[in-house]
Each structure stands twice: as structure tokens, then as C-alpha cells.
Amino acid sequence: MQRQARFDATTLALLVLPPLFWAGNAVVGRYAAGLIAPMALNALRWLLAGLLLLPFVWRDLRPHAAVMRREWLVIAVLGVCGMGTYNALQYLALTTSTAPNVTLIAASAPIFALGFGALFFGQRIDRRRSLGAAVSIVGVLLVLVHGDFARLLTLTFVPGDLFMLVASALWSVYTWLLRTRRPPLPPMVLLFAQIALGSIFCVACALVEWQVFGKMSRFDTPAAAWVLAYVAVLPSLVGYLMWDRGVARTGATLPIFFANLAPVFAAILSALLLSEWPQWYHAAGLAFILLGIHLASRPARGSGFNR
Question: 111: closest CA among 177, 178, 165, 74?
């Protein structure tokens, strides 16, 4: 028998606040584009998040040390895909693209996951899911071409939008690995292990960015301190842990739709804080993406619920 979802004011907060924090991460990343180099921002974000999380998981690390040693390669790949490449590419995307664009393209990640599931994990795509994928792709294209499909002929895309497409594809790999190869660890221990191993990759990328490409950062300003404090605490720790509790209360299906509030919040925050006002194609793209994900995630007629 399916457990009845608990939905009250607390649950609503658990599902609404994480997308707000993640939208704020995109806006803050856009604001920090001229202040902190993207790879440096990503490395410092996760190093600080790991240090903040360590006191809460310290006693649980030794009892699970054997599992972490046995599953270190899977944990490392999860850390590189989730904390390393995805977030690094997101911050890199925000140097040339806007927060609404980035969050809208990120909202298409479930469609990428559907494609990777069919190609590499044996998931069957039926007609309904294919239609959902096609509708969502139209929404992503609307955002990429700024409502002008003639751009498809000249391929004049903003580089940041293409970086975010790659990031969304990598996030789908992360999601499938969590679904099929998740190490048997408590959520906070697994998150810390991913941060610890993923941070090695993040720091290496930041060093290459500094030594090879000469990207400099300024950390001696109050703005830099506030940026680092925000990205390390709210989207990295509080958002992840609140989301985990929200999923535990409602199941896996309902939160998908709340996650797509992030582009809405990003558009509002960008307008208020960065004066980057959303355009008509942002609203149209969001509508197509949400409709596509709704079509792809609906249970087939006559079935109980999605597995």
C-alpha cells in the first residue's frame, strides 16, 4: 500500500525553500562573475560546505569507513559529476548567460535523464515520454535562441547557455548513478563523502584556472565574503537537507514540480537584484519545459504509480 504523503505548512516550506536557495545560487553566481573566478567559487563553495558539515557527521564516518573504502570510485564519480563539473559549469555559464537562462536550461535535466536512461540504463521510453521530451526540448530551444528560431541556422548561441546544456547532461549522469549505484550510506555521510572527493577535482580545476588561464579573484571585499557564505550554506547544505526531508514526506514525484520553481524565483530575484528583467521567451520556455516534464512523469493509464 502506498504511504500517504504528509503535506502541511512544514512540508510546503521544505519543498519551496530549496528551489529559492538554488535560484539564489544562480543569481549570486551571476553577481560574482566579475569578482570571483568561476572555478575558484565552486572550489571554495564545497570546501566551506564540507567544513561546516564535518562536525555533524564526524562520529558517523568511522562506522561507515569500510563502505566508503569499498565504494570510493562511485563516490568519487558522484562528487565529480555533482559537485565538480555540474556546479563549475553552472558558474562558468553565468559569466556570459543570465540567471533566468541558466535555471531554465537546468530545468530540462529530467529530459536528459530520460535520454540517458534509454541509452545506457535500459529504460524504455514510451510514446508519452517521447512527447514530453519533445515538448521540453522546444522550451529549451526557445530560451537558447531568445525566441528567434532563425538563430538555429547561424548557431549564434551564448556560450554560457551551451555550458549549461553540458552541465544538465552531467547532472543526469549523477542522477542515474545515485539511482542505480548509490552507496549504502546515510544521506549526510554520503553528501560529505561526495564533497570530500569532489573537492579534490574542484581545487584542481581552480588551480588550472589560476595558473594556466590567469583568472584572478578578489576575496578582500565584504561582497566576496557574503557570496561565499551564501553559496556554502543555503544552496549547498540547507537546501540539500531540506529537500531530502521534503522527499521523505511526499515521495519522489511531487517534488519534481516544486524543483521547477527555481526558474521563476531566478527571474524574480534577477529583476530585483540585478535588473535583468525576464523576457517573453523565458515565460514561454518555462511553460513548455513544465508541460514536457508533466507529460513525461505522468503514470500511464491503468497503472498505479511511477516506479
Answer: 165
Q: Taking Cα atoms as reference points, which of 207, 202, 186, 179 lies closest to residue 79?
A: 202
- Dist CA 262 CA 115 (whole Å): 22
204-216 tens-digit pLDDT: 999 999 998 888 8
CB 115: neighbour CB atoms within 10 A?
15
Distance, in Å, from the CA atom of 263 to the CA atom of 110, rounded to the nearest integer, reads: 15
Terminal-to-terminal C-alpha distance of the chain: 14
Specify the pLDDT at position 2: 44
Tens digit of each residue's pLDDT (9 = 90 or more) over 107-135: 777 677 777 777 777 777 677 777 777 78
What is the per-residue pLDDT for 3?
47
What is the structure's pLDDT at 305?
Answer: 27
The number of residues in the chain equals 307
**In the chain, what are the domain boundaries?**
9-297
Q: Which residues of 13-37 are buried (b: 16+ CB within 10 A; e: fewer)?
A: ebbebbbbbbbbbbbbbbbbbeebb
Q: How many CA atoms lie within 13 A of 252 on its CB side?
A: 8
- As a whole number of angstroms, the longest Cα–Cα distance in the chain is 61
Cα separation of 283 and 48, whole Å? 35
147, 281 contact by CB (below 8 A) = yes
Q: Report whether 169 contacts 69 (CB < 8 A).
A: no
